[in-house]
Amino acid sequence: MRLATLCIIGILSSCRPAPRDAYVPNRSDSLALGDMAAHDSGDNALLTPRVVTGPTVIVFWLPAADTLSADDQAQALDDLNNATDHIAPTLKRHDIKLLPTNAETIYVALPNHQRRTILLSGVDYPFGYVLVEPGTAERILAGVYTDDELKDELAAYFDLPPTADSTATGPRIS
């Protein structure tokens, strides 16, 4: 009986999943935005949490978006891609990285090899943007934003100089 109990305990302990705080590889520079459209939400590379080390805009599309109808998914993805295409030159001009992810967790690198966790699974919409500058609070922009709204949010968060086509409205609160 003792031997059977030890065998069962051994089998069960070997089947445990890895702890949630297990090592997360640094994936901050490994994928470009174009990789997001080439893969589906089940792709393992995009599901690996990102580690942010500098000013970054992360475009996220969580697996929970699969609960939307196909038409709603297509419209949201088209709007997200369109707005992202319009802000990409501005981000490049100001040395702000643009990264895609399907992971529900993002890590921000802090001094002394520490990381701060950003969890996206509880936001209003399973897609949108995360504006991150290490050392400051992140801004999660869930849902679809127009080009102008997104540019205004970027200018306010990253303290970018005003452009000729920006509006004088304040940031949108979601």
Protein model, in words:
- The protein is α/β, with parallel strands linked by helices and 174 residues long.
- The protein has helices at residues 2-14, 34-38, 44-47, 70-93, 147-158; strands spanning 50-52, 56-61, 97-101, 105-110, 114-119, 127-132, 139-142.
- The chain is built from 5 helices and 7 strands; from the N terminus they run αααββαβββββα.
- The strands form 2 sheets. It has a 4-stranded mixed beta sheet with strand order 3-2-6-7. The protein has a 3-stranded mixed beta sheet with strand order 1-4-5, with no helix packed on it.
- The protein has a single domain, classed as 3-Layer(aba) Sandwich (Glutaredoxin), CATH 3.40.30.
- A hairpin with a 3-residue loop joins strand 4 (105-110) and strand 5.
- The radius of gyration is 19 Å and the shape is globular.
- The longest helix has 24 residues, at 70-93.
